[in-house]
Amino acid sequence: MATAIYLEHYLDSIENLPCELQRNFTLMRELDSRTEEKKGEIDKLAAEYIANVKNLASEQRVEHLQKIQNAYSKCKEYSDDKVQLAMQTYEMVDKHIRRLDADLARFENELKEKLEVSGYESPDGRALKKTRNLKDKRGSRGRGKKGSDEDSPRKKKMKNSDSILAVHPSDVLDMPVDPNEPTYCLCHQVSYGEMIGCDNPDCPIEWFHFACVDLTTKPKGKWYCPRCTQDRKKK
């Protein structure tokens, strides 16, 4: 029921948006047409001035140049109006996007509160709790041993520099994001999908998503990230 109310209110708020956008785009097209006409007028005035400048008196030259200046000023005025319309259009759409984000956040909070009151635990919450329990058990067994360092991303890379981290994107999207989870790659995001390790042992990032480094398959031989490649060229 709550979903229907949020959706109904949001649809009501954007009912006039298409008409407003169409009006702004039409005005921008009209301003473009006026600007093109003025540019043609400027070209014509400039050609006349160049052709007859030797035969014109000083006052006539000033008058002719003033006409060209006025035409340029009009073009600038049309351009400024178009920029204002573009900014207005952007803010109009952005306002609705921000409202949608706020409504979604409010709906999620209400849903969580209802689930907490009913004592229901979501599958994602149970999976996250199970994962944390497994991590705690492993941490208690491996505390104070070298084995805890063997599973770090750098140690894994040292063992096999061409290895690829394979995690299905849907698994990442289904699981809640842990704010303490380390980030990788040029995009500074958590590990997901297919990843490749840089063969430079001193690489500060280490792991990269295929899409972020324009890879579709695992390359043969050694592979260096874009940053390390540039550093090697400088040397």
Describe this structure in words.
The protein has 235 residues and is mostly helical. 66% of the residues lie in helices and 5% in strands. Strands 1-2-3 form a three-stranded antiparallel β-sheet. The chain is flat, with a radius of gyration of 31 Å.
Present the secondary structure layout.
Layout: H1 2-13, H2 17-52, H3 58-118, H4 123-142, H5 147-150, H6 153-159, E1 164-167, H7 169-174, E2 193-197, E3 207-209, H8 226-234
Antiparallel strand pairs: 1-2, 2-3
Helix pairs in contact: 1-3, 2-3
Summarize the structure.
By secondary structure, the protein is mainly alpha-helical. The chain contains eight helices and three strands. The longest helix has 61 residues.
Annotation keywords:
mainly alpha, 8 helices, 66% helix, 5% strand, flat
In round numbers, the mean pLDDT is: 76
Q: So how many helices?
A: 8
Return the string of H and E elements. Answer: HHHHHHEHEEH
Helical coverage, percent range: 55-70%
What share of residues are in beta strands? 5-15%
Runs in which pLDDT lies below 50 for 5 or more consecutive residues are 140-152, 154-175
For the secondary structure, the number of strands is 3
